[in-house]
Structure formats: structure tokens, C-alpha cells
Hints:
Low-confidence stretches: none
Amino acid sequence: MTVIELEGVEKSYGDLKVLKGIDLEVGSGEIFGILGPNGVGKTTLFQTIIGLLKQDSGKIKINGELNDHSKELKRKIGYLPSDVSFYEDRSARKNLEFFSDLADTDPDIDSLLEMAGLENDASRKVGEFSTGMKKRLGIAQSLIKDPEIIIYDEPTTGLDPEGKKEFKDLVRKINSEGEKTIVISSHITTEIDSLCDRFAILKDGKVVASGTKEELGDISDTDYRILIETREPEKVEEILEEDKRDFERNKDRLTVRTREDIRNQLFQKFTEEEIDIKKIELKEETLETTYLRLTSGN
Length: 298
């Protein structure tokens, strides 16, 4: 079942067009990743989904219903912005109580604090919290309405490796035990690649690809990437140009894109020309290489 559906969503700020026709579907119970460089429109996309902003055109549906910016619909979605902030002179409990009153809800604060691993810090002022503790409190805040959908905008920013692991473990727990659909954004693939079921890659205000890691790898224009390291890159480059190969060069490293494994043919030519080759190996397409390929350049 599709719980979030966007069709041709556009949003501009004056003359600046940020979203340029977003088409996107998120299924029930998924952990869905939104990948894109900084400034590509991820936050604007999220704010239109939750109703903080109204799109200029296009449709947004939540559980099949058009987003009418109603209070009832907003209750279905929890949101943790990238710049989460709290009243630092108040305790963790008092902050959650304040936001609960603001949302006109009556959650089990103790359970939320326990879920976030903050039950022993409930009375501490948030100003004394580490970045990781504030993020976990933010996750607790995103659950005060017991939403069906939770959106996390660049949630691992500022976290150390331990904090990132704690965040991922917590998200998995919320997803599996709470049966929540979760959408997470990042501009770094390694932050969420092991966490999400599917991904959408944004570039220039549009979704340029979506699917699982395996499906995104299949989108590649080529099936193989062959890495060549050599002390004579100019000679290797000449041979590749003569053979009309698709390749890129970075100093003494050249990457060839091809639809078949041609390592043996290349190695034979390099040997015949007595070119000094340090390494020639097959490189697999990964989520990161797909992301970089789709978002770099024009």
C-alpha cells in the first residue's frame, strides 16, 4: 500500500524554482531514503509533504487522500527537522510535555523517554545534553502524536559514529515494533545505505532515480567498471581512445565503463605495448557510485 504519493509537485520561492515536478511513492512500513546534495530541495520537499508549505502545483496524497493541510492529516505525520531545537533551560520531560500540549496530545512521556534511552536523564536540562542525546529526544518528540509516518531531515548531522549507530538502531526499532513508515534524507549515502529499504535520488529539483540499491545499480548505463592504475596513463589513454572506450581519467587512475568484462583484452594490449600496469580490476556499482554518477556534472 502506498502511504505517500507525490505527482508533479512544484515549489518556488519567488523566481527560484526548487521543486521541479517531483514524482514519488513511499510504501507502508518502508524505511525510505531521500538522497541529494545540499541545496537540492530535500527540506522543501519534506515541508510540502507535512503541510508546512503549500506546493505551487502537483498533488500530494497521504494514505490516498489529498493533502488538505488539515489538523487531522498533520497528526498522521511526525517530523524531525535537521536543526532540531529545544528549550535548553527545561528538562527533557518538560520539553516533551510542552510539545505534547502544543500538539494537543496526551502521550505516555515515560514510554517515549525510555524508548529514546533517556529515562535516566528525564529531569536533566536539555542544555546539558550531548548532540546525540538531543537527537534522541527529537525522535521522542516526533512520536508524541503517535503518527503513522515519520520524516527525519538529515538526522545524522553532527553525530559521532556511536551516535549514528544509536540513531539507526532506534529507527529500526520504531519501524519494526511501532509499524511506522519512515522517510530519511541525507546527502551522504553511507549514512543511510544500510538502513533504508528503497531510495530516491534528487538532482536539480527532480527525482532522477528511485528503487532498491540493487535496482539503482541496474540503472547504470554500463554493466562493468574497470579500474586501471598505471605509471604511464597517457599511453593507456591513447589505447582506450583508439578502441573508442568510455573512460575517465584521474591522474594515474583510469576507469573504463563497458557492457562486458574486457580485462583480458585490455591487459593483452597493454602487454603488447609494454605499458607498466600496476593494477587492473573490476569494480562493482554501489549506491554511492550510482549516486555520485547521477548527481555530478550537468
